[in-house]
Specification:
It is globular and about 30 Å long. It has one helix at about 1-20; strands at about 30-45, 45-55, 60-65, 75-85, 95-105. With about 110 residues, it is of the alpha+beta class. A five-stranded mixed beta barrel has the order 1-2-3-5-4. The protein has one helix and five strands, in the order αβββββ. The protein has one domain (about 1-105): Bacterial OB-fold (OB fold (Dihydrolipoamide Acetyltransferase, E2P)), CATH 2.40.50. A hairpin with a 2-residue loop joins β1 and β2.
Length: about 110
Amino acid sequence: MLKRIATAALMMPGAFAWAFAAGIGEYSVGQHLDISGRVSLGGNAPFIYPVIQTRGGVVWVLDGVDPDSIKPLLGKQAQVAGAVSRTDKPGPVLPVIDVDSLRQVAP
C-alpha cells in the first residue's frame, strides 16, 4: 500500500507538467494573437481572474480585463485579440494575453 502511494506521489509532478504542456513553444512574448473560446473565471476567492479556454483545451489568462466587467460573457463563446505577455514556460503556469479587444461571438 505504501509503495503505491509513493509511486503516485512521484508521478503527480509529471502529470501536472503534461497537463500544462499544451501550447509550449507555440507562442512568444509580444506576439499578437486572436483567440476564440469559452470565457470563465479561474482561481479561488479572493484571487479570481478571467480566462478563455480554446477548443484545444488551452486556458489563457485575460490580462487587463476586470472580473466584474466580464460577467455578461461568462460561459459564452468570445474572441480575444491581444499580445502574449507570458507564455506557459517554464513549468505549470497559464499563458497570459494582454487584451486589446474582447467580444462575444456566435457559438
